[in-house]
Specification:
Layout lengths: L6 E5 L3 H13 L3 E5 L2 H10 L6 E4 L9
Parallel strand pairs: 1-2, 1-3
Length: 66
């Protein structure tokens, strides 16, 4: 059985969560992009909007709120 090949963007300012969630998702076979603030998440999404299949977005973040 093949593993999923979707890309997930994680936007989270809490270091522990931003490290733990992608680690679990990568172990399940997903590609993960992690961003520490809203602006970095927006920049990542705008650079490749068709390549990102799901965004997990923290609401209260520095620089640009989710």
């Amino acid at each position: 059985m093949s593993k999923p090949s979707h890309t997930i963007l994680i936007a989270e300012d809490a270091d522990r969560t931003r490290i733990a969630v992608p680690k679990s998702l990568r172990a399940a076979g997903y590609r993960v992009i992690a961003a520490a603030d809203g602006q970095a998440a927006l920049d990542s999404f705008q650079s490749a909007p068709d390549a990102i299949h799901l965004v997990v977005l923290d609401v209260l973040m520095p620089r640009l709120s989710g």
